[in-house]
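[Discussion] Sanity-checking designs against the backbone

I'm trying to build intuition for which residues belong where. Below is a structure token string of 210 positions. I'd appreciate it if someone posts a full sequence so I can compare it with mine line by line.
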């Protein structure tokens, strides 16, 4: 039986091992630069990857990876928004309409003529808290007026809201109590005066007192 005995001279020297290591590293570097970088990341410093089609493959992979990351970020953002929306109670307030109030809305327009020193009083039947929009106007200068109310049931003979002497007035009249509420006018000019009154709102009737 023949056994070959290796001598120390048969073993590779340190120089040979170093050379082999350097060659291996060089080959790996070449493969990395010409194949791996173009194919995986679209990086082609030598141009070889483009020639053999690896660069395009790498660009596609990189693009897909970027899109996937963007999609994940978008999903996370949507998830956070959904969580926030689900955790927040949204209350939408709608204006409630009182059918009774709508049923009680009235509207009237009238014009009356006053001779010099003549007067007239118009009253609305209103409950406490009810409101009417009003506008009145004289066609011949200032008219003396007194906006007031009274109530026989409550024994209120006179309650003033406003008085003065103007050619026009408008606003909202709110009843301070159940009763009659309205206006008194007197023509203190030397000529005939026409006064036009427009009212709309919560009152049951309108009537001429004098």
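Best answer:
Here's mine. Compare freely.
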């Amino acid at each position: 039986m023949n056994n070959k005995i290796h001598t120390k001279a048969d073993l590779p020297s340190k120089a040979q091992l170093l050379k082999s290591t350097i060659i291996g590293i060089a080959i790996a570097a070449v493969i990395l630069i010409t194949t791996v970088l173009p194919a995986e990341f679209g990086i082609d410093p030598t141009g070889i990857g483009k020639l053999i089609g690896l660069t395009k493959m790498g660009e596609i992979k990189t693009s897909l990876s970027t899109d996937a990351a963007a999609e994940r970020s978008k999903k996370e953002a949507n998830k956070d928004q959904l969580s926030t929306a689900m955790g927040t109670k949204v209350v939408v307030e709608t204006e409630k309409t009182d059918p009774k109030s709508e049923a009680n809305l009235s509207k009237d327009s009238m014009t009356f003529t006053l001779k010099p020193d003549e007067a007239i009083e118009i009253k609305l039947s209103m409950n406490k808290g009810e409101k009417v929009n009003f506008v009145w106007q004289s066609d011949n200068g200032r008219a003396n007026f007194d906006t007031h109310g009274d109530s026989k049931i409550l024994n209120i003979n006179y309650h003033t809201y406003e008085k003065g002497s103007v050619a026009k007035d408008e606003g909202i009249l709110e009843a301070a109590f159940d009763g009659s509420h309205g206006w008194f006018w007197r023509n203190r000019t030397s000529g005939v005066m026409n006064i036009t009154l427009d009212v709309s709102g919560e009152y049951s009737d309108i009537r001429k007192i004098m």
